[in-house]
Structure formats: C-alpha cells, structure tokens
Design goal:
235 residues
C-alpha cells in the first residue's frame, strides 16, 4: 500500500513528500540543507540543539525542523536573515557553555560545531563564557570522555540505547549543568554494561568522546546508525 503524499513549499519550491515526514527530511530529500548538530539519520529525533529552526508562513514562531511534521499547503523558509541570526546565537551559546578551544582540541578541523561556526560567520562569542573544569575520564582501556567539550546533543546516548541496545550512557542534572554519565555515574572502567563498541565516539560531533591514540578523522562516522539499521533490515 502506497503512503499518502503531502504537497508543501520549501523556500518557494513546491515538493511532494510522504505523509509524516519531518521538515528536515523533506528538505534534505529535495536538496535543501538545514544545519543541525543533534540530529542523525538512524536515530530518533531529539530537537535539542535548535539549529534547525525554520519559519512557517502564518506563524510568528520558529519551528525545529527535525521534529516538526509536514502538512498540506505548508510554506517553509529555511534560510532567512532572522534564522541566520538565531543560528549564530545558538552556536555562540554552545561555545559559551563549556570549554571550547579549537587549537588544543582533539577534534580540531574535524568538529561539526567548529565547521558550523565557520559557515555561519561566528568569529566571537557575545556571552560570558563558562570555563568548565570537569575531570576527564580516561579510565577505559581506549575510550575517553571529556565533558568540558560536550554540547549535550545526546547522539552518544541514543546510539548506545537504540543501536547498540545497552543504554550505558545517560544524562544527569539539567540544563547547561547536565553531564553524560555511564551506568549510575560510574567511571568508564567500572561500567558493567559498556560493550566497548566505539559507536559513541563515532557519532560525537565534537571532541567530547574519542578513542585514545586514534586520529579523530579515522574515528568519526556519522552514518554508522543508518548503516547498521539498513544491514539489520536485510536479514
């Protein structure tokens, strides 16, 4: 049975997509790129980074494209001056909340936050920066987590839960004070559920989780969740 389609306009161009499709997927499927840090193909949508905000004609609000479904007759704007300013502000807030110094980061030149800052023209931070001093956990045999670089996108948590199926990782606390933890806030070496699969390091968009001694360019693989799901469906 074929899925009903919905007609809408994205940046003035009429497109047809399956009913239930998110604005972000509808845009990507039609060659329109919307910036995002928390969204990843193969994982459930989270809507946390707010970089994919779009305008919908007839509403004064901005909508996160990754969790907003399309509707018939919808007219979406993905790249206005207003949206550019909001996205620049979102990147600046992420940079201000933790200790992000690109020149000494393991992910320098391979960091999605750094890349977005460059694309959006973010060359300074107008907010007071919080220089965090959270202890780095390098107790695992080869996996390291530096929470000072974490942007709380929860990609690592979702890939651990939804793809690896062990839910070793989760969040404690709330807001900017939230931290990724292992099991019941154990050191990584003491985790009884971690399978050492490396998926968390592969999907981390910044330098928060990495493999010690391995070039970050070899570690990163954004399509790992989508790849595994596709292979599982072949059985």
């Amino acid at each position: 049975m074929s899925v009903p389609t919905v007609a809408l306009k994205i940046d003035g161009v009429e497109v047809n997509v399956p009913e239930g499709t998110t604005i972000l997927k509808a845009a990507l499927d039609n060659g329109v790129t919307i910036p995002t840090l928390c969204n990843l193909e193969g994982l459930t949508s989270y809507g946390g980074c707010r970089l994919c905000l779009v305008e919908i004609t007839g509403s004064p609000k901005l909508f996160p494209a990754c969790i907003t479904p399309v509707s018939s007759g919808m007219e979406v704007t993905t790249n206005s001056d207003r949206l550019k300013e909001y996205r620049k502000m979102a990147v600046q807030m992420l940079l201000a909340e933790r200790t992000h110094i690109c020149s000494v980061c393991v992910a320098n030149d391979h960091c999605e936050l750094q890349s977005l800052a460059n694309q959006l023209g973010v060359d300074h931070v107008m907010f007071e920066r919080k220089w965090t001093g959270i202890e780095i956990d390098s107790t695992h045999d080869f996996l390291v987590i530096d929470r000072n670089r974490c942007i709380l996108c929860t990609r690592c948590i979702r890939v651990c839960d939804e793809i690896e199926g062990v839910h070793t990782l989760d969040l404690k606390l709330r807001g900017k004070d939230a931290e990724v933890i292992m099991d019941l806030d154990e050191n990584w070496a003491n985790s009884c559920s971690c399978t050492s699969c490396r998926k968390c390091a592969k999907v981390c968009p910044v330098g928060a989780i990495y493999i010690e001694g391995e070039p970050i360019s070899h570690t990163k693989r954004k399509d790992i969740a989508e790849f595994i799901l596709a292979r599982r469906q072949r059985r």
